Amino acid sequence: MRGRLRWLLVSIIALMMLAVAFAIVAYATQRHWLPYAIVSATNNGRNIGISDRKPQSVTRQMRVEVGPPAASLSVWIIDPTTKASGTIFVLHGIHDRKTSMLGTGRLLARQGYRAVLVDLRGHGESSGKWLTYGAVESSDLSQVLDALQRENLVTGPVGVYGASYGAACALMFAGHDPRVRAVVSVASFATMRDEVPYFIRHASRMPSWLIPDDSIARAITDAGRLAGFDPKKASPLAAIQRTHAQVLLIQGEPDAKVSVDDARQLHAVATDHSQLVVTASPGHDAFFRDRDGLIARATTVWFAKWLGKPAAK
Questions:
Q1: What's the pTM?
Q2: HSE-up (13 A, CA, CB side) for residue 213
Q3: Which domains does the chain have, with CATH numbers?
Q4: Strands annotated E in the chain
Q5: Residue bearing the bigger pLDDT, 22 or 52
Q6: Shortest CA distance to 153 belongs to which of 41, 265, 219, 61?
Q7: Which of the pair, 279 or 27, is modelled with greater confidence?
Q8: Could you give the CA distance from residue 36 to residue 190 in angstroms, rounded to a whole number?
Q9: Which one of 92, 98, 145, 155 is separated from 119 by 20 to 30 angstroms, measured CA to CA?
Q10: Euclidean distance between CA atoms 78 and 118, whole angstroms
Q11: What pLDDT, on a 0 to 100 scale, did the predictor assign at position 16?
């Protein structure tokens, strides 16, 4: 009997020591990998392959040097068959690239707009180490717009369409640059500070005991320090209050990556120049496939209204 008790006691102590060791290792690891994971771009540490090949529908491709910090952005332009009545930027989601936005670009070109598809810094064929959740990307996009104007490639008023991470960048671009007249934002987060914990809890399903809330908050601060920006400035919520652009907010529900509450917050602080559409969704990524055509219809009607061209029937 004593032998069994001794064995049980030793086992309990061993398990406790193992748990403590695991907690120490997990904490130490979080302090390093979590900030890096939050801001590391797809192209961080990669040699960027730049191809001269482009889809047939792309009228022109160009590179725009932006910064600071310095980055080289790859841009595709899709022209309409008639004179463009407006110029619309088209922005992809996180860890994605402009090729996934070709359908949207072609749609806008058919409606009579010049579509400008951009690989955001660190994505696709654009250089850059870090994601800044719109804080730096908004300035990058203004520099792309400057470059387009120098080449006489801006016709009519300027709009922006963005999906997910690209939607957040679109709102921050509008908040940064008064030349933007209209925005379609599909599933944007409200602030980086709120989005990262939500994503970790819901999309990655990491339990709170493994990564506590205070660890996530510290990791966001460390991530900003690592990438050289202030996470507080990664705020579409602040940007939508600064801009005079007309904003259409489209959000699917449920969404494990971006909360529908974010869209409601964005609309609530800009009721005089925004409209909110919430619809049933099969999930964040599947929502962008737009199987029922809701996003496409709402987008063309919105830009037709605010960029001055009647929607095609």
A1: 0.88
A2: 4
A3: 58-191+234-307 (3.40.50.1820)
A4: 60-66, 71-78, 87-91, 114-118, 158-163, 180-186, 246-253, 274-280
A5: 52
A6: 61
A7: 279
A8: 22
A9: 155
A10: 11
A11: 42
Strand 246-253's sheet: what is its strand order?
A: 60-66, 71-78, 114-118, 87-91, 158-163, 180-186, 246-253, 274-280
Q: What is the pLDDT of residues 149-186, one digit of tens each?
A: 999 999 999 999 999 999 999 999 999 999 999 999 99
CB contact at 8 A, 199 and 135: no
**What Cα–Cα distance (Å) separates residue 146 from each residue in 66, 151, 211, 250, 294?**
10, 9, 43, 28, 32
Distance CA 265, CA 256 (A): 17
Q: How do 71-78 and 114-118 pair as beta strands?
A: antiparallel
Helix (H, G, I), strand (E, B), or coil: what is residue 248? strand
Concatenated DSSP letters for 63-103? EEEETTTTEEEEEEEE--SS--S-EEEEE--TT--GGGGHH
Indicate the pLDDT class of residue 65, thresholds 50, 70 and 90.
very high
Whether 130 and 43 have beta carbons less than 8 Å apart is answered as no
Token pair of 100, please?
């996934």
pLDDT band for 274, please (50, 70, 90 cuts): very high
The three-class DSSP label of residue 61 is strand
Tokens 């771009």, located at residue:
41
Report yes or no: 112 and 80 within 8 Å, Cβ to Cβ. yes
What is the C-alpha separation between 26 and 37, in angstroms, rounded? Answer: 15
Cβ proximity of 41 and 122 under 8 Å? yes
Q: ∠ CA(32), CA(37), CA(40), 5° rounding?
A: 115
> Distance of CA 36 to CAs 31, 41, 89, 193, 223, Å?
9, 9, 29, 16, 6
CA distance 288 to 12: 51
311 has a pLDDT exceeding 70: no
Per-residue pLDDT averaged across 19-23, rounded? Answer: 37
